[in-house]
Amino acid sequence: MRPSSRNTAFPRHTPGQSAHDSHAWNTLHSLAPYLWQYKWRVLLAISCLIAAKLANVSVPLVFKEMIDQLTSEQLPLALPILLLSLYGVLRFSTSLFTELREILFARVTQQAVRRIALEVFSHLHTLSLRFHLERQTGGVSRDIERGSRSISSLISYTLYSILPTLVEISLVLGILIVKYDSGFVLITLFSLTAYVLFTIRISNWRIGLRRLVNDTDSAANTQAIDSLLNYETVKYFNNEDYEARRYDRHMQRWEEAATRSQISLSWLNLGQQIIIALGVTAMMWRAAAGVVDGQMTIGDLVLVNAFLIQLYMPLSFLGVIYREIRQSLADIERMFDLLREHREISDAPDAGTLHAQSVDVRFEAVMFSYEAKRQILVGVDFSIPAGHTVAVVGESGSGKSTLARLLYRFYDIDAGHIRINGRDLRQLTQSSLRAAIAIVPQDTVLFNDTIYYNIQYGRPDATREEVLAAAQSAQLAEFIEHLPNGYETRVGERGLKLSGGEKQRVAIARALLKNPPLLIFDEATSALDSKTEKAIQASLDNAARGRTTLVIAHRLSTIMNADEILVMDGGRIVERGSHPVLMEMNGRYAQMWALQQQEESEAVAAL
Questions:
Q1: How far apart are CA 275 and CA 316, in angstroms?
Q2: Torsion sign across C-alpha atoms 489, 462, 122, 518
Q3: What CA–CA distance (Å, rounded) separates 523 from 404?
Q4: If phi over 0 gives left and psi between -120 and 50 gives alpha, with beta otherwise, what is residue 523?
Q5: What's the pLDDT score for residue 8?
Q6: Helix (H) or strand (E) holding 223
Q7: Could you write out the DSSP letters of every residue in 467-525?
Q8: Residue 239, Cα to own-chain centre: how many angstroms?
């Protein structure tokens, strides 16, 4: 992958200049409180900035006096020591106040970046599962990365480039008005105005090109991350060349956009230099004419030239700075857009905290759909008394796993009620609700860290002895002991270094370590072989004892001892009862049981 571009993305939804300006002011308004909490540092930094510019502007004035002294009839040895000393002090003062400004403002910038990045990161974790299922990880991570970097860039360009330049222009114009005629001021103002207007106009035209560069950059980055995350799938289907061609198509579009942008930048720089050259020539011609006429000294000529250099040196970067500021504002806006992303699931103002050693669960006529045209649950009604185990079986797509997601309140139901200890889930804080539940999911995804870390994640404050005990209960200890690095073995991206069964046992250990009053097993043994499944099943039964447990199962042999078994089809409960009762009914459950027994017999016979 190529190194990330310094240029940042622009919002796709800003059709015109006024919209850009509106969004820019909104972004600055959102950013201001993070900076103003350090208002004394900000004010001191601005004071240092002004002091540095006063010293910088004073240097040519002292230099003028030195030149006039040297060109007078006095010998160079008679040059006043005071002027030399003052010249050195002013030169040093410029650097001193500049560095003091940076020292004072460093913490302001980094604290603002840290606080905003943390708020965005935390907010993303509060958003609904729907948002995270629809998002593109590469695009979101790039938005956060660019936004964080752009805060530093915006502050740097504003405090270290734009504001100092404005202060310096004001001081220089003031000196020119006081010491010389208005012609110098008019030439300077005309040159600056032409330069700024030309830069802004061309830079605004280039915004479309820059947006295209950054959009193609994000598209390439998203596709690359998606491809690398699905490394195994790429290998399974021998599609390395196909993925490379896809990536290259994105990079080709980026290359074309970046080339056009670079060429347009060269034309922008050329136009700026023409304006600077004309302005400098006009100023020096007028100053030289003043010297010839005896109205100005050689020192005045040097002073005007020094002022022009001081003005045009920072202005030569105005195009780049203006573009970067616009890009920074746009990227910060994207990050703030993430912060303003609607929280589909939020705690009610009067939400209570769930404190319970045991819980009972009740689904009352629950209706739910992920999309309006696709109903998932239709009038689901059942209860799990405290300490009891209820199992749910059915074909894929019947709505079994949706029950677990609703219990965690990843989504809110469309109608009906889900109650815990008689209280509607929507009247409980999400934090206390999820603290009372542990789940062993069907598709276990692990952090790219050690086995120990992934088990301890169930309860981060657990002792080592408790972690080892959970691993033992999940029949994982013997496997770990045979690894070269034991519990410190890293599991790789999403746990890909472990087999499906090993990952599932880590998930079981993690859930056992959490030790909650409500357990959910979402096909918790689906990736295990029969021998390991039987060994772990005893541990699961032991873990469920005394706890309220919801078991979503595919293998019916694992739920024979459940207090009640629900059979789902098309989002409805079509049968319910214990294993013996359902077998006597000779309905859907009995058919599923007979089919699985036949499959197991055929598998044994094939060995």
A1: 10
A2: positive
A3: 11
A4: left
A5: 34
A6: helix 182-229
A7: HHHHHHHTT-HHHHHTSTTGGG-B--GGGTTS-HHHHHHHHHHHHHHH--SEEEEESTT
A8: 30
Mean pLDDT score, 115-134 = 68
Q: Is the pLDDT of residue 392 over 90?
A: yes
* Per-residue pLDDT band at 172 (split at 50, 70, 90): confident
CA distance 33 to 17: 26
Mean pLDDT of the region 261-267:
82
Going by their DSSP bridges, the two strands 423-424 and 415-420 should be labelled as antiparallel
Query: Cα(40)–Cα(36) distance, rounded to whole angstroms?
Result: 8
423 three-state secondary structure: strand
Token pair 């289907």 in the structure block, residue: 237
Residue 457's SS3 state is: coil
Positive or negative, the CA dihedral 134, 379, 403, 338 is positive
> Would you say the C-alpha torsion 59, 65, 66, 67 has a positive or negative sign?
positive
Helix (H/G/I), strand (E/B), else coil: 378: strand
On the CB side of 466, CA atoms within 13 Å amount to: 15
Average pLDDT over residues 493-513: 82
Judge residue 398's burial from the number of C-beta atoms within 10 Å of its C-beta, 0-12 exposed, 13-18 middle, 19 or more buried: buried
* Cα R_g (the chain), whole angstroms: 35
Show Cβ contacts of residue 118 under 8 Å, excluding neighbours closer than 6 positions. none
> How would you class 15 by CB atoms within 10 Å of its CB: exposed for 0-12, middle for 13-18, buried for 19 or more?
exposed
Name the burial class of residue 73, with classes exposed (0-12), middle (13-18) and buried (19+) by CB atoms within 10 angstroms of its CB.
Answer: exposed
Question: Which uninterrupted H or E stretch holds 577?
Answer: strand 572-577
Domains and CATH numbers, the chain: 19-339 (1.20.1560.10), 358-436+519-529+544-607 (3.40.50.300), 441-515 (3.40.50.300)
Structure tokens at 126: 């509060």
pLDDT band (50, 70, 90) for residue 12: very low
DSSP labels, 429-454: -HHHHHHTEEEE-SS----SSBHHHH
Per the structure block, which two tokens stand in for 259?
């080339």
Alpha helices per DSSP H over 316-383: 318-339
Give the list of residues 6+ apart from residue 315 with CB closer than 8 angstroms, or none. Answer: 165, 192, 195, 272, 276
Residue 149 CB contacts under 8 Å (≥ 6 apart), including other chains: 8, 331
CA distance 434 to 479: 30
Contacts (Cβ under 8 Å, ≥6 apart) of 202: 264, 267, 268, 271, 319
Q: Within 10 Å of residue 550's Cβ, how many Cβ atoms?
A: 26
In the chain, what's the furthest Cα-to-Cα distance? 124
Q: Which residues pair with 363 in a beta bridge?
A: 382, 418
In this structure, what token pair is assigned to residue 423?
């209280």
Rounded Cα gap, residues 412 and 406, in angstroms: 7
What confidence tier does 10 reach under pLDDT thresholds 50, 70, 90? very low
Structure tokens at 20: 């850009």
pLDDT, average across residues 214-234: 81
pLDDT digits (tens, 9 = 90+) for 275-300: 888 888 887 888 788 777 777 777 77
